Amino acid sequence: MSVAASALLFHSQGKTDCSNSKRKSHRNSNYSPITETMESEKQQDSCPLQKFSVLNCIDLSSSDIDKSVSSLKQACLDSGFFYVINHGISQEFMEEVFAESKKFFELPLVEKMKVLRNEKHRGYTPMLDEILDPDNQVHGDYKEGYYMGVEVSEDDAAAEKPFYGPNVWPADDLLPGWRETMERFRREGLEVARKVARIIALALDLEADFFDRPEMLGEPIAIMRLLHYGAQISDPSSGIFGAGAHSDYGLITLLATDDVSGLQICKDKDARPQVWEYIEPLKGAFIVNLGDMLERWSNCIFRSTLHRVIGSGQERYSIAYFIEPSHDCLVECLPTCKSETNPAKFPPIKCGTYLSQRYKDTHADLSLYDKSQT
Description:
By secondary structure, this protein is an alpha+beta fold. The chain has nine helices and 14 strands. An eight-stranded mixed sheet has the order 1-2-10-7-12-5-4-3. A four-stranded antiparallel sheet has the order 6-11-8-9, with no helix packed on it. Strand 1, helix 2 (65-78) and strand 2 form a beta-alpha-beta unit. Helix 2 crosses helix 5 and helix 3 crosses helix 5. The protein is globular.
């Protein structure tokens, strides 16, 4: 059973690429995620000895805003990754969220499939559902996930737009209090993102509240995804990854993770061979990275960096919070990031249009699951 290939339609409106290199992008997998979910593959890891990247640390409780702006700006120019600490979410609550996430992923597959991802990208994504680096992956990512977004009722006109609509939740008698915990974490995480965005605005010589406008983070597409990586050992030389190499799509991503290493970044995607460095987990911190939209907004001054996850044979849990502007936000080069000698590198594009294509190109067609169960 095969997944129909989806051609990438980016071209001038496509994925940010600030180099002259071009990569083929296609989905040419010949597997069923449901069938493969039931299998356990272990491969030898071909990664070299672990090398950890040194990241700047942004303290959101600091009163020295100039220091924060300078540190964040350097991180955005160097790697596009940094830590955020003292962000206002307690360690106790973070641990509670991870415990609730683990409860969901420990459910039988038949229960998780009852809340399968829908066309609005809400709900459960099985192992191998997503393939982020089709040129180098032989299967999809060896991870399962659970999407949540901004809650919009079905009778609201906004629910007609991609990424807007009601969430899909496990039954309350199955996981009591689960929904309330996740909704609280989404709310608190969004406030952290807004604080980070204000520092980013200052680093780009904009007013601090630039990203607070309604069409941006006033009414954002804020997508939170619980993630569980299996105990498979990745083998990059054989195309086996926890998550294939990719850059994120939106403005910024907040990542909370357990203490198991696995996240790697490649600061220079055009280098051959590529050099990959691990990001060390930091208890209580968010790892923040820039997305493709911010790279477009900044005219490639700030970087959206390739990253991937390498499985070490240990289970790994993380929570990725993708912060995107509103559906109708027009992403175009910022006035502070262009000049006569450095004109805009990309044409304007609406956020919803951009995100819809990126999700379509990296996720399995939902009809595949219907076929696999018949």
